[in-house]
Batch of 4 targets.
Target 1
Amino acid sequence: MTRAVSESTREKTAERLLKSSANKFYDPEIDIDWDAPLEEGKHFIPPERSTLYGTELWDRLTPEQRIELGKHELASIATNGIWFEVLLMQMLLKEVYDTDPTTGFAQYALTEIADECRHSTMFARLSDRVGCPHYGPVPWRRRLGKVLNLLAYGPAMYGSILVAEEILDRLQREQMNDPEIQPLVRMVNRIHVLEEARHVTFAREEVKRGMARLRGPERAYQQWLIAVVANEITHSLVNPAVYKAVGIRPRDGYRAAVANPHWRESVRYSGERIMSFLDDAGLVGAPGMPWWRRSHLLAAR
C-alpha cells in the first residue's frame, strides 16, 4: 500500500512538472541576444566570488585583470556545468531505459534531459561569446567521470545531481539581478535558475523516496558515494588553466585558491541549502565524512 501511495505521489509530481515545463520555458537560441556587445567595465562574476579574492595574488592584479580572471572563471564554471549536465543526462537515460515510457515519471525525465541539452548549448555559447576556451574538468577528472554512470543509482545519484544543480543555482540567483554583472551573464543565469527549479523538485522527491527504503550497508554506500561525487564537483568548478589568462602559473593559482578562506566560504555558501536537505534526508553520514570535509561544503560543527 505504501509503495502504491509513493508511486501515485511520484506520478502527480511528474504531471505537475510536465505542465510547468510546457508553460514556462526559454529557448536560449531565441531568447538571448548573443550579438549584443559586452558592456565595458562590467564583471562576469562578483569579485568576492573569485577563487583568488582576498589573496596576495588578487592584490597584485589590476582592476582590468580582476575582471578578466572573473571572465575565465565564469567560462570554467560554465564548461564544467556542461560536463555535469552530460553526466546527469547519462544517469537519467539509464533510469528511463528500464521505465515504462507511458508514465509521467519517464516523460518528465525525458523533458529534463531536453532542458539540459538546451542548457549545455547555452553554456557553450556563453563561453564562446565572452572569448574563452573550453576549460571543462582537468583530463584525469574527465576520465574519472566516465565511471559515475556505472556506480551511481538511487538516492546518491539524485543527490549528486542536486549538489551540482544547487551549487550553481545559489550562485546564479545571487548574480542574476546584480547590475554590476554583464547583462548577457544575468540572462543566462535567469534562464538556468527558472528551469532548474523544476529539476530540483524532481530530484529532491526521488532522494526522499529512495532514502525511506534504505537500511544498513546500502545506506552506507549511498552516503559514501554522494560525498565522493560532491568533493569532485566542488574541486572541479574552476580549472587551474584559468589563471594563465592573467599571467599566474596555474599551480600557483590553484594552491592559493585551495587555501583561500574566502573561496572556501563561497563554496560553503553555494552548498548551504542542499547540504541542509541532504543532512535531513540521511545522506550525510559517517562513511562519507572525510570527503564532505574536503569538499568545503560542510558548515563548522
Target 2
Amino acid sequence: MKVLFKKDVPDVAAAGQVKDVADGYARNFLIPRGLAVVATAGTLKQVADVQAVAARHAAGEEHATRDLKQRLEAQPIVVEAKAGSQGRLYGSVTAADVSAAIQKQIGVSVDRRDIDMGEHIRLVGSYQVTAHLHRLVSATMTVEVRPIGSA
C-alpha cells in the first residue's frame, strides 16, 4: 500500500515522503497513529503544491539572507566595553554583546547562538567573527572592540 508520511518514522521514511509499505503495517500502525495517510492522487497533488510553495519561500529567504550577509560584511560592528589602560577588558565581549551591537547599528536581529566567536574577546582590537544566517549562508564580519569613550 502506498502511503504519504505526515511525520518522520525512524528507519522507515521522512515526513512528506511517499513509500510503499505492507498493508497491515499501514492499516494497523501508521494510519491509526497519524503517522501516514493513504497516498491517493488528490493527496499527492496537494503535497506537490505545498512543496512547490515551500521551495519558492526558501529561495526568497535565501536571497534576503544573502543581502543581509553583504550588509554585515560591508562595515565593521563596533562594540564598546570598559577597558584598562593596556587594552585589557574588564570582563569580556560575548556573542550576546555582538548580537546587540548588530541590532543597534544595522537594525537586524541575529540570534546570539548563530554567532561563532571561538572564545570570548578579552582585549581591545579588531576580530573576525562568523554569523550563521541560513543553513547555506554564513557571514564573516569584522568586530571592533573599543574602550568606552574613544572615537
Target 3
Amino acid sequence: MNFKSYDILSTLVPGFILLLVYLPFLGFIYNKDYVVGYTAIAFGLGYLLNTLGSWLEDFYFFTWGGRPSCNLLNGKSIWKIKQYNHSVLKVNLESKTVNPNPDNKELFSIAMRHAFSQKDTRMEDFSNGYAFARTMLTCSLLISIVILINYYNDWRAYLTIIIVLIFWYRAKQRGYYFSKEVLQVYSKIENI
C-alpha cells in the first residue's frame, strides 16, 4: 500500500481534532504517553469522517443549492467563481453523448473523463482540497453537536455554529473551484 502525504494528513488532522474533543466527552483525559495509540485512533476516526462526508455529500449539495458542477453548467455562480462559457461548453458536452436529454451530472462526468486524461493539471490538488474541506465540515458538525449537547447552557457553545457555517461555505467554495477547474481544462482541450 502506498500512502501520499496528503492521504495521511487529510485523515490525521480531522481525526485528531475529533479525538481531542471526544476524549473529555467520553470521560477520558489526554495522556501524552499514549500518543501512538491516539495516532492510530485518530487515523481511523479521520477515515470515518471522510466516509461520512462522502455519504453526506448529497445533503451538502442540497444546502448549497445544488451540485457545484451542475450549477456552473447552468450559469449559476457564487462569489468570485463563475463559468463564463457555460452555454457553449454545455452544447459541446451535449454533442459528446448519445443520450438525447442528458442532465448536467452526465455532462460533467464527460468533461471530467476528458480532463483527467490530461497530465500536469491542477485537478488532483483541487479535488483533494474539496475532499479535505468536506471532511473538515463533517468534523465541525460532529464536534458542534457534542459541544452543544454538553454545554447547551453556555453561550460560548453556540459559537460552534459560526465555525460550522465557515467550514460549510469553504467546502462549498472548494466544490466550485474543483468543478470550475475541470470545466476549464475540458474547455482548453476542446478549444472552447
Target 4
Amino acid sequence: MKYNKLIRDKIPEIMEGKWVKFTSHIADNEEYWLKLKEKLQEEVTEVLEDDSVLIEELADTLEVIYAICDFKWISREDLEKLRKEKQEKRWGFKDRIILDETD
C-alpha cells in the first residue's frame, strides 16, 4: 500500500516492532513544507468529520501547527502572544455571531 505522507517520528519504530515491512525517507525542506501543509489539511478534515474523537483530532492538529512553527522558526510563545493580541482587538468566537451579509 502506498502512502507518501508525513508520519510521526516514532511510527517507524512501532512498525518495526510489529514486523511490518516498509520504506521511508527523510524529506528535504521543500517536501517537508508541502507535507506539513497536507498533514494540516488532513487533520482539520478529521476534526470536521468526526465529533466522537474531537479532542484527539484537535491535539493532532495542534501538533502539526507546532511542527509548522518549529520549521518556520516561529516560537510557540510568539504564536500565543499574537493569538492573544488578536483576541484582545477582535475578541474570539464565544458570542456565536454569524455575519449574514454586507452592502
